[in-house]
Write a structure and sequence with these properties.
Elements lengths: L2 E4 L2 E4 L4 E12 L2 E8 L5 E4 L2 H8 L3 H4 L2 H11 L6 E6 L12 E5 L1 E2 L9 E2 L12 E5 L4 H4 L2 H6 L34 E4 L2 E3 L23 H7 L10 E5 L2 E2 L6 E3 L2 E5 L1 H8 L12 E10 L5 H14 L6 H4 L4 H4 L5 E3 L15 E6 L2 E7 L4 E5 L9 E2 L5 E3 L2 E7 L6 E5 L1
């Protein structure tokens, strides 16, 4: 069966698909790359060199160092309208030797009372002041079922001086949130300085560094740090002192004692959150970018589109997917928009090309607003693009052309 690719979407014979191309193949600092956005405008595909893609997808410290280069590619074509950029590696699992499944790069902080200083590194990443952080998800299911909610939470925590944690997580404590801890009513004293606890999830376990991916919502302390609830709603937190797991257990641990941290303690040590929950940001805008060395297939575009759609819904999805989305995890207190609007793109969105295979021909059509159609068989080589010579037909402001399907893989773009 003949297959044709329109821009970066695999088009099977007999099917119709659309893709809006907002950046054609460009050259930046000597590296060829391409940016394509699918027709729902929820998923961006950043196509980079095989070496750059392999390095970034390794999910190592060295790989993460090319994040500024990737984000600058994005800002070549997009306006500075996004609070978060999520880079997604198109792989089922991180490769052998990976250091993480999800990672965050803090870009700026202007919030007081959460244990962070005020800083701004936007310029190093191509942002003029809007971007708050960049996240890398190194596994296929990372957004909807993996580290999505967890990494977003790292924008605000845990950096408190009042709650000794494990790195930037909640450690052996009763927070029981995205960043770890146990459920307070499960804590049991077993004698001889030994205890057991769990996070309320199947399996009788908890993790000091994170709990069950997107299967748990944000807890009150996390919501406070995010600016979504007042400090008065944060319950007392029990923190185990000198705690460590017993053997390979993830529920039994030893501790020399416990310390109770109250909301008053948090304010006394870390200060009041400014802005507070009445004035804090509640609506966030995110760009979701899949980094590959070759254009995404239509099936992969569809997979990520479904994940982004569910994650950004302003209605519950847990009963359907088994996972909390962002809105649901915040208890409906905050939203995460992950859709590109025309004003997000420098120069505006180019029109879509509609492709319809029929009787050995590929029929292409688009709005007649001054663009010309080009084709290529390699996509990422700038010199490979050439104008399609027609003949063209124009009817009611729509240009169309029919191209014989000769068996070669083809890409098409609209260019000025």
């Amino acid at each position: 069966m003949k297959k044709i690719e329109q821009i970066a979407v695999l088009l099977s014979f007999g099917l119709t698909t659309q893709v809006s191309v907002i950046a054609t193949v460009l050259s930046h600092n000597g590296s060829d790359y391409a940016i394509v956005v699918n027709d729902s405008r929820r998923v961006v595909n950043l196509v980079v060199s095989p070496d750059a893609c392999k390095l970034f997808s390794s999910a190592t410290h060295d790989g993460f160092q090319i994040t500024p280069q990737l984000s600058k590619h994005i800002y070549d074509q997009f306006e500075d309208n996004f609070d978060f950029i999520i880079f997604q590696s198109d792989q089922v699992w991180p490769p052998t030797g990976a250091a993480y499944g999800g990672q965050i790069q803090a870009i700026q902080n202007d919030t007081k009372g959460i244990g962070l200083s005020i800083y701004n590194f936007c310029d190093s990443y191509g942002s003029s002041g809007k971007l708050q952080c960049i996240i890398h998800l190194a596994e296929l299911n990372g957004l909807i079922g993996g580290a999505g909610l967890h990494e977003i939470m790292h924008r605000w925590g845990n950096f408190l001086n009042s709650i000794p944690g494990l790195g930037s997580h909640w450690g052996f404590s009763s927070v029981n949130g995205q960043l770890g801890g146990w459920q307070i009513d499960t804590l049991q004293y077993l004698g001889n300085g030994q205890y057991s606890a769990n996070n309320g999830q199947p399996g009788n376990w908890f993790d000091p560094s994170g709990n069950a991916g997107n299967k748990v919502p944000y807890m009150k302390l996390e919501l406070y740090l995010m600016g979504l609830v007042p400090i008065q709603e944060v319950p007392d937190i029990e923190v185990a002192i000198d705690a460590s797991f017993i053997g390979t257990s993830r529920s039994f641990f030893t501790a020399s004692g416990f310390k109770t941290i109250t909301s008053a303690d948090i304010v006394a040590i870390d200060g009041t959150r400014i802005p507070d929950y009445t004035a804090s940001q509640k609506d966030f805008k995110t760009l979701f970018v899949v980094v590959t060395s070759a254009p995404l297939s239509e099936a992969r575009f569809d997979y990520y589109d479904s994940a982004v759609r569910n994650f950004s819904k302003q209605s519950p999805t847990r009963s359907e997917t088994g996972f909390y989305n962002f809105w649901e995890a915040t208890g409906g207190r905050a939203t995460m928009e992950i859709t590109i609007s025309p004003e997000d793109v420098k120069g505006g969105m180019k029109p879509s090309v509609t492709a319809q295979p029929s009787a050995g021909l590929l029929n292409l059509s688009w709005a007649d607003i001054g663009y010309r159609l080009q084709s290529s068989e390699s996509f990422v080589t700038p010199s490979s693009w050439s104008d399609v010579l027609g003949p063209f037909r124009t009817n009611n402001g729509i240009v169309s052309v029919s191209i014989p399907m000769d068996g070669d893989r083809q890409f098409f773009r609209l260019a000025k």
